[in-house]
């Protein structure tokens, strides 16, 4: 591939939104030690991608400009670097690129450690939805909320907010693999969809009951997988069971404050900020669930790479139902 050029979409500085994305021809990257070069078939967007562009992770990310964003990809192995043991050219895989990005392009380099095989039953688009959104839902439920996804374990009442979004739609389905009663919030247009994903009861977030996060059946939540924007603690508090946890995947300053106060006062009810730590064994597990038909990726929309800025604008808009996919 040395010297070959590829189509990629990058930005040159912080800010600018969709208009800040530029289509360029750049050299195909070469895989180094432990890395794999993929011909990309699908890339999914996550809000973190445009948040990095906005400068919300400044000065950590991006590490340098110009920057090719997006991390969640599915594709075919075309070359492997030294030391790669488990993959060879021709293998279909799903992978998570490092936060150095590279997903909005025709080819991308991934680390073998965050790459898993993709069986033929799982489409590239369905697989590309999984890394950030699926792994976050999985981590929140299994690691933080302590749900066993084999129905073994005590019954727990779970609330998933923004259940129509990328993380939320996986969280509802995964939660129902455990011994759970799931309440979910979403907009009126997605109530039937979220019910079809397995939610036992669904609240329209624009109604007074939805805004108050009140379970229609009067359940108190043992865990809230909080995927919507910030809510004051006073909204969560009356809805939690004695040892109920709010797992906040978009924690701001007030969430960290609540986390500290609840910990220092030995409160039974807690707020837990969550940051994804991706693990390949969990990604493999999610791919297997999709293969078995136990988990599905709801696809909001698909865009060719030539229209990546439309996909970007859709993600910034914040009203996707499921995942936004870009296809090189
Ligand atoms: N901590 C981590 O490691 C981590 C990992 C992944 C994601 N995140 C963060 O988690 C958040 C969610 O990510 P995502 O990918 O799921 O986002 P997303 O797909 O963009 O979420 C969009 C969905 O949220 C719904 N929604 C918006 N506000 C709502 C509300 N108040 N109540 C109920 N539903 C609401 C929208 O419904 P309508 O269209 O009907 O409004 C839409 O369907 C983002 O802030 C993201 O950055 C953090």
From TrEMBL:
Q: Which InterPro entries match?
A: ADH-like_N (IPR013154), Chloroplast_QOR (IPR052733), ER (IPR020843), GroES-like_sf (IPR011032), NAD(P)-bd_dom_sf (IPR036291)
The protein's superkingdom reads Eukaryota
Segments forming domain Enoyl reductase (ER): 16-326
Which CDD domains does the annotation name? MDR1
Q: What is the designated name of this protein?
A: Enoyl reductase (ER) domain-containing protein
